[in-house]
Amino acid sequence: MKQRLVVIGNGMAGMRTIEELLLSAPDKYEITVFGAEPYGNYNRIMLSAVLCGEKTIEDIVINDRKWYREHGITLHAGPDKAVVRIERGQCKVYAQDGTTAEYDRLLIATGSRPVVPDIQGNDLDGVISFRDIVDVNTMLAYSQSHRKAVVLGGGLLGLEAANGLLLRGMEVRVIHNNEVLLNRQIDKQAGEMLQAELVKRGLKFKMAAKTEALLGDQAQHIRAVSFDDGSEVDCDLFVFAVGVQPNISLAKQAGLYCERGIVVNDTLQSYDPCIYAVGECIQHRGQTFGLVAPLFEQAKVCANHLSAHGVAEYKTLPTATKLKVTGINLFSIGDFLGDQQSEVIRFTDPAMGNYKKLLLKDNKLQGAVLYGDTQDGHWYQELLENKQNISGIRNSLIFGRAFTRSLG
User: Fold this and answer.
1) CB of 222 within 8 A of CB of 213?
2) Which of 111, 119, 140 is nearest to 48 (CA)?
3) Could you tell me the pTM of the whole model?
4) For 134, left (φ over 0), alpha (ψ -120 to 50), or beta?
5) What domains are defined for the chain?
6) CB count in 10 Å sphere of residue 308
7) What's the mean per-residue pLDDT of the chain?
């Protein structure tokens, strides 16, 4: 008799786990999936491509409803199918509309929520986050009827939102609380090169800025943004893109141990041995996750244990950052700031728009930032992950893999 596996969350991490499980143990479980969005599984990281017109919603669907039927998976999808309660004593989950499912194993993949700062006016009409298909559709509708957009956040998500709205014909200003764009991923020099390129394209910036309030009109729709320096900018659409936080409210209600995320061990098991968790909702060895590569690795390990092959362990590796703004190549990995014991090698070619920075310590690569020419990013990532001694290739390292190999 098959065991019952219930999955809460129909996103990329949860469904990748199911895909891996179907490969290794296709007949082990009766699978039931609950998702709060009324779709099959789609590629959330491609939403920016939909926003800027490179893709359609249909293009980014990974598994449509037919896929679930073909694999014998029961899918409950839509806002009324969102799970609101886990009863661990009964091994049962309850959806908002009363739908229930019992489990032998439960996989929580509830993802993350957008951070909405406590700013006056954050509940006005025309104020949104950039997280799902509904948000993208809202932005597309505004781009057809309104002119001025403001994006709060100069990180990856904020720049992708800003670029998409710009390409849709809006006048866009990015507000960032730091002097450097992508300050968590790149250094000052690369940040300045990136900003200069984006300004050329038509984006406007207000850097090292503190947003004081969002101001509404008589109809309670946003009309302007005010700052602590007394300045204001007009605004028809305001987009929060200042980060995400693990969505752990359901896990906490169920009494699972949580800190910043649902705490899991190296097998992606929570403190309840029947309950696993993967993706942006988890915390593993003190770390939370926001990029896709570690989520897919977690999916492999979790499926390995759900299929009872049970030998894999999840290890957190440095994750590379790549920017998905058309025509701009940017790559970073590891510690690119360093300390007094670190050694820095830089290469700049302003005419070609290329910049490289490598950070070394104890003859090992600790971090890298590449702007423009990023083709050696994967090689640097391998050197870093393998903790390879680079003393023999140190003098040619900055010039890349092909040049280093040519030297023998």
Assistant:
1) no
2) 140
3) 0.92
4) alpha
5) 3-113+244-306 (3.50.50.60), 127-240 (3.50.50.60), 329-406 (3.30.390.30)
6) 10
7) 94
